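Troubleshooting log. The previous run stalled partway through. Resubmitting the same two chains, unchanged.
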Amino acid sequence: MKVAIIGIGLTKFDEHWDKNLRELAIEAGTKAIEDAGIRGRDLNAMYIGNMSAGRFIGQEHVAALVSGELGLSIPAVRVEGACASGGLALREGVFSILSGQNDIVLVGGAEKMTDIMPDYVTTTLMGAADQEWEAYYGLTFPSLYAMIARRHMFEFGTTREQMAKVAVKNHHNGCMNPIAQFQNEITIKDVINSTMVADPLTLLDCSPITDGAAAVILCKAELAKKYTDTPVYIIGTGQASDTLALHDRRSLTTLDATVKAAQMAYKQAGITVKDVSLAEVHDCFTIAEIVATEDLGFCKKGDGGKLLDEGVTEIGGKIPVNTSGGLKAVGHPVGATGIKQAAEIVMQLKGEAGKRQVKDAKIGLTHNVGGSGATAVVHIFSR
Amino acid sequence: MKVAIIGIGLTKFDEHWDKNLRELAIEAGTKAIEDAGIRGRDLNAMYIGNMSAGRFIGQEHVAALVSGELGLSIPAVRVEGACASGGLALREGVFSILSGQNDIVLVGGAEKMTDIMPDYVTTTLMGAADQEWEAYYGLTFPSLYAMIARRHMFEFGTTREQMAKVAVKNHHNGCMNPIAQFQNEITIKDVINSTMVADPLTLLDCSPITDGAAAVILCKAELAKKYTDTPVYIIGTGQASDTLALHDRRSLTTLDATVKAAQMAYKQAGITVKDVSLAEVHDCFTIAEIVATEDLGFCKKGDGGKLLDEGVTEIGGKIPVNTSGGLKAVGHPVGATGIKQAAEIVMQLKGEAGKRQVKDAKIGLTHNVGGSGATAVVHIFSR
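Second attempt completed without errors. Output:
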């Protein structure tokens, strides 16, 4: 299995008070089209990852909206799997090319989150969890992940400082990424002393509310060299599901969907975790990155905190994680995140990641999660 | 191109005050699994068409919700294209099989619309139209289609009675369909004298607010005979887009997206419109069926009204349209409609449609529209 990426496009991830969803999506899409050196009319189809435009801005049907705004009449499909919407859209785009039905496909992700009150953003995001068994009882996403964090601390001795180190590392990386919402260094002390959100998670353990869009141009592998000398290939895709409600799961400290999606993707790519040069993982909260690095096999279960102590996941470490700055520092416009992750890996594998470049990056991985782990999607990329 | 359907499942389409979205989806999914004679664990993936659960019931991430409730951990993807969500989910399911990644896939559609106030349903449905250029100015879907109707009357002399005949025919067909929300005969007079909604459309020109779910089991064509002696095959799929806003279009009386999607599907199936034995088309309003029969090529542009005068689209006519009762009589749980259409065609092609059976049905067509025509998807089925 092999599908090429021949172009990428990103807006700044930020609070965009002067731009609406369609403008953000068009900006990212147009940049990707230009980067690929194609024209809009070369596209056979469009997939858009978006979690909740219906509630954020009253607008469903956003794929047709974007396609229409670009002056195209191609098949346009919105794909949704909560915060994994971008990753799922990428996977559907890949399938549509493998099916033989399409040659060149735009896959985008976009979310406009700041047009409603912040407390209603929290309510809207709880649409990713189980309404009837979680939301109605007052749970929020920070509190769901706080329970995961507490249990992880109890079972494996993970420390408050180790969690804080995720935020410190990702802010450091974000300082080198021009699209990042936050480009400021922070310290462990800053994280621990920031406003309490859901014990033990403080404000700086949480990814922010963000507007933004990202896009990639997929191309049938056999045609890629026609458009670029340096295509990046998707060589593995995996996806799995779990119950929406956290209490229905076997474990609080392992996301089984991540484990299964990763196994599927590694197998399809014909690689093992040892081959992975770098990864963008779903750090919606600091604890989520620790759990993800374990579930993806970067270390054994419970050792995620140690990876941070040892610098393994820093740029320059054995397996850099979230070189972009992750959801924490780049920001998390939910539907866009999965595509932003892919764009970061493409830049890294092409050697175009500037100051945050990972040396000799050959194989990259993206890991995108919906809700508290009911959806996980993993992609493997190679030069 | 050939993908088999080996099982179908439908809930009653109705106001289900005692069932929530997950129960409806599980009921349809379980029936389809049983109908196919498979077990849940035989499924490789699941696609769910749903338009607006986020606004109707506060719940996004519905594909993982359904998969989790079924005790499965397979890839689960929600697909959205407004009222065409079901049709788009079917198409993505087809692609996933053609891609070689999946052998057996459940494709469902579900919507729970009655949990919120009816006036908010109208607001929510306007999420399918352009928020910034249509909804904010007070347009509703009945008024959008009323403008199409007025223009069609002006350009082609289509009469009020011809529109009413769509509702009369579809109610008649619905009387023979046990899942239909309305199983009562109505007259042209009833339609014309019912409450005015948006001139010239009255209450009985409009599809109702409905809860319901539908599912089909897709199977790689080569494997289908292992599960059933009478598979039905999808032999063509087409999709196209247009601007969300009606005023940006070339014409009010032709849905270009339907024309393009149909051409794509006919070509892929290797058939012409003359080969079509029967069709389920998107009659969200009576005028929509008239426009659809023209755009699909069942008659020339402007003659859609005459098809009704001449009985061409009745059961027993040359090309029966909406034998199920259509959106008008069966009801229109928006995300479920596209899959219900496919299930009706499967029943007809297998000769299992009871009193509403079309004699010697060989090739069936489904036509599912999002919004006022920004998305259209057409599938062709054969025995």
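Takeaways: Chain B has two domains: 3-117+210-226, 129-208+235-382. The longest strand of chain B covers residues 232-241.
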